[in-house]
Design goal:
By secondary structure, this protein is mostly helical. About 65% of the residues lie in helices and about 0% in strands.
Length: about 120
């Protein structure tokens, strides 16, 4: 899977997770379709997809043994690094520690890891 395809998988998994876990009606920006997603966000999604893919590969495919929390923390940390890359002074919510993220976002991040892992299967 190319990085662009992986970025799209990341975004589609994010949207599906938000729809599954977000309490109530999510902000429009949370569920913006791929074609309307800003370039910086596409680039960030592609970078995090690549990091997840590489992590699965260097782990010999054993990442299925990680807990949902471990998977979610990995995605959140990778995303935070991208926020610092793309924004000089990112909003605090963009770079919040995993423990400070809302539960819907932590669950969505775990879903993203699972989707990438499954696609590599």
């Amino acid at each position: 899977m190319s990085q662009t395809e992986g970025a799209r998988l990341f975004r589609e998994s994010w949207i599906a997770g938000v729809r599954r876990h977000f309490p109530g009606e999510p902000k429009a920006g949370y569920v913006t379709p791929w074609d309307d997603t800003p370039q910086w966000e596409r680039d960030a999604a592609g970078a995090v997809y690549t990091q997840i893919r590489q992590f699965v590969e260097v782990s010999g495919g054993r990442t299925s043994r990680l807990s949902r929390e471990q998977k979610s923390r990995f995605v959140a940390t990778c995303w935070t690094a991208q926020m610092f890359k793309h924004f000089e002074d990112p909003k605090p919510g963009y770079v919040a520690d995993w423990a400070d993220l809302p539960s819907w976002q932590r669950e969505t991040d775990a879903d993203i890891f699972d989707a990438v892992e499954e696609a590599l299967g």
